[in-house]
Amino acid sequence: MSLRSSVARLLKQRAGSTLRAQRRPAHSVALIGAPFSRGQKKGGVDHGPGAIREAGLASKLSRMGTIKKSAKIGYLAYVQEVSVILKHHLTSCQVYDLGDLSFTQVPNDELYNNLVKYPRSVGLANQVLADTVNGAVAAGHSCVTIGGDHSLALGSISGHTRHYPHLCVIWVDAHADINTPLTSLSGNLHGQPVSFLLRELQDKVPQLPGFSWLKPCLSQSDIVYIGLRDVDPAEHYILKKYGIQYFSMRDIDRLGIQKVMERTFDHLLGRGQRPIHLSFDIDAFDPTLAPSTGTPVLGGLTYREGMYISEEIHNTGLLSALDLVEVNPLLGVSQEEVTATTNLAVDVIATCFGQTREGAHIVFDDLPTPSSPDESDSEEQVRI
Ligand SMILES: [Mn+2]
């Protein structure tokens, strides 16, 4: 199915129309694969969406599906259905998988300023992604973009802000990705997306070929970083000069992840609720947990810290779009490493949409009573 027709189909579907919320308002998730790798130089990150799908993302999100206690099924069948859902610790979540975007190769995509790589390819891919994310969010879905490299946040955040101009961003990453094209040492655009998005930096960012569609859409107070531990000197200067809130791994050591999340929400939501865009780079995790990624850095998030961040973001009820980027299945030294990384990515996404470690509490409409007609479905009296 072409992207255009799947987006058209998506737009026709009314988000959550068939859902019964068990715990929170019904939500539906639009899944977009963005197999894009030109924001950095290692091959394989374009296989990220495929690997994460293979790890069972869509089924994990939707398997719990909808619980309907229809007149046709007896209480036993209902309890069985609920137990399947509880086993996966998820609340109801309808998934619309839009498949993978296909990106046009831009010929003669020469370096900008003798350094910045593939500006036209990155610009065009993100223009397509921005339109797709905007369409999905406008149709009422939460939008999950699976990368691909982190230059994709240019498109996903731009498209998201087109519908929710007042949104805020939580950027979970080992790196700040806030170099400008003029401060970048590598020329890789996956290390620069935030500089293009921030209004305060616009007089420092040159116009790149392929980027004319892109407008800065965030202010310095709209973003919080979590997990930083490999920040270039120019990036550190930018973070300090513009007063951007960040929690490095050292801050997490000092405060604990619970305080870090409290302060993140105070900073972003203290003056009122607004949609959250979570941009999650898998390299925020320690390389022992997420080895299959292009720029691993020692001393990253533990599994528990990553899950806590995701749970807390889910608990706000404000998550509107999520990027999960930089999973590179060609970089594992063994299949186990690749599987560990893709499973971790799936856990982050599922947790952001309601998977819990303590188990889900399903709200029953009513408990069976001796006079309930459901109980008479079964010959045997069942005590629950
Ligand atoms: Mn990143």
From TrEMBL:
Binds 2 manganese ions per subunit. It comes from the Eukaryota. InterPro entries: Arginase, Ureohydrolase, Ureohydrolase_dom_sf, Ureohydrolase_Mn_BS. Residues 374-384 have a biased composition (Acidic residues). Its cofactor is Mn(2+). It catalyses: L-arginine + H2O = urea + L-ornithine. Residues 365-384 are annotated as: Disordered. Gene3D superfamilies: Ureohydrolase domain. Its EC number is 3.5.3.1. Pathway: Nitrogen metabolism; urea cycle; L-ornithine and urea from L-arginine: step 1/1. Keywords: Arginine metabolism, Hydrolase, Manganese, Metal-binding, Urea cycle. It is an enzyme of class 3 (hydrolase). The keyword Hydrolase applies. The keyword Electron transport does not apply. Homotrimer. Belongs to the arginase family. This is Arginase.
